[in-house]
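Recap for those who missed Tuesday's class. We walked through two folding examples back to back. For each one, the amino acid string is listed first and its predicted structure tokens come directly after. Nothing is annotated here on purpose, so try labeling regions yourself before you check the end of the notes.
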Amino acid sequence: MAEIVRFQRADRISGIALSEIVQISERARMLRGEGHDVTALSTGEPDFPTPEHVIAAAHEAASRGETKYPPTAGTVTLRDAIAERAGVERESVVVSTGAKQVLANAMLATLNPGDEVIIPTPYWTSYSDIVAMAGGKVVTVPCSMAEGFKLTADKLAAAITPRTRWIMLNSPSNPSGAIYSAGEIEALAEVLQQYPHVWVLSDEIYEHLSYQPFVSFAAAAPALRDRLLIVNGVSKAWAMTGWRIGWGIGPAELIKAMIVVQGQVTSGACSISQAAALAALEGEESLLGDRRNEFEARRNLIVDRLNAVPGIECPIPDGAFYVFPNIEGLIETGRFSSDAEVCDWFLNEAHVAIVPGRAFGLPGHARISFAYARSDLEKGLDRIEAAVAKLTEIEETDR
């Protein structure tokens, strides 16, 4: 009888698991299934609906018969609309199944084993895993709250080696909400001018959720456009997370390589979703301002209330819909050994789901999303305040 061989993971994913964000969401779902009233403030999905004119455009596209295989690089109309907004040619644009696929396409198309990618921390959880899956080596550069969670020119210069292939930036940032100013981008670009082998990936998916002036890397550093990939999409600003449309804008040679990868993984993105995305880009954008204003009001609410909680220090984010407070004051009570334990305690004791900073490469913090309705935010904040107050009472009793 032949020996039974147990399943073995490929080495490329040996150290990769479901993101901690997903794991926490699943635990929250499990607690709800057990009858607990759990308030989840852990995911980055707007509570707003997809705009009606976008949904109507999708229906119309389906009725017209736009249900066949789409071009691998994206429909001509959508690529042209993206190109026009960016001031580039169609050949510099690829449309993918979400911005995450753009990131994966770029890394798979360019990295050889051992090539290095500089990622400032805190960073979105998928960045490091995508680099690892593509055979690259992640080089993290911690950027503290005191530094505004932003990479400085000096730190960038110190991290670059002959093996560096990319630097990944995210502005506005998930999880910190930090936005790089034109001057800060120019300072980074000045360093990069000395290292022509280093390319820049600028993830600008939260472009339209900026509460301070937003500057694209392409606009602030035009001299680097021949080695710059801009990543964007419709998921966040237009509340179209489930439509799965993102795009990359970069040098035609890079885009061609990314299209080759995409052709062997998913082929073209959903034709109906592309028609919807086109309607989003060509439609009235006043609703973006209205929604941004609402997110800003929620931001102010959550920052004010968190800063009133002992042990929590919450800076004001300039963009996106997350706060990334420092919770070391809670860890220092001696009841917790890490940010992860604090977040576990909030979930199990207060039934509020938030994500520890370690998931984003910067322990001692927690990410809390304000992409939720105000009623959910108020409930979650009430529970956080009550839990910390109870903790304080226990400490005083122990003394």
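Example two. Treat it independently of the first, because the proteins are unrelated.
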Amino acid sequence: MGRRPGGTARPTKSAILDAAERAIVQTGYKSLNFRDIAAEVGIKSSSVHYHYPTKGDLGAAVMRRYREDFSERLSHPPDDPDGAQAALNQFLDGFRANVVDLDSMSLCVVLLAEKNLLDEATTEELSAFYQLKLAWLSEVVSIISRGAKSKEACEREACSILAALHGASVLVKATGDGSFYEKAVREYRNLANRMALA
């Protein structure tokens, strides 16, 4: 993919991160090894170690890039409730397109399943990724509620939305029935109405 062009070392580092991300998603963090990454990129294993001395360094770099790329794509929600609802619906659609429709687990979900194997830096990046999503969702909820909900209430609603997304993705994967996703998120498509009924 080579998502971050730059200096002479960047294409190689980017290719290593691309290969490592694919490997984690496909076979898990435990199976990640430098020889396979090097073979896919077409470099020596020592070159991978040059950029990322340890598996922990590589895992943290993969998760950091994943979080930074996600943050760049996550636009600031509009200040009006209708615009914020549209942004939330795009968020729901994006999750479906990138996780559910592709019939794959996201990088962060795979890493969470093996959290006991992760080093502190990777765990911190994983936490920061979820905090980013929760903060954005909390802001969206606040805008849709026109400021009527407290910060704590907005955070609770954000947690509910994120839990519904991840729960729905697991349910779809377990059953093979993609319709469960929309059933799980339907109430968030018109969040103002859901909050009025709560």
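Answers for example two:
The chain is about 70% helix and 0% strand.
The two ends are 44 Å apart (CA to CA).
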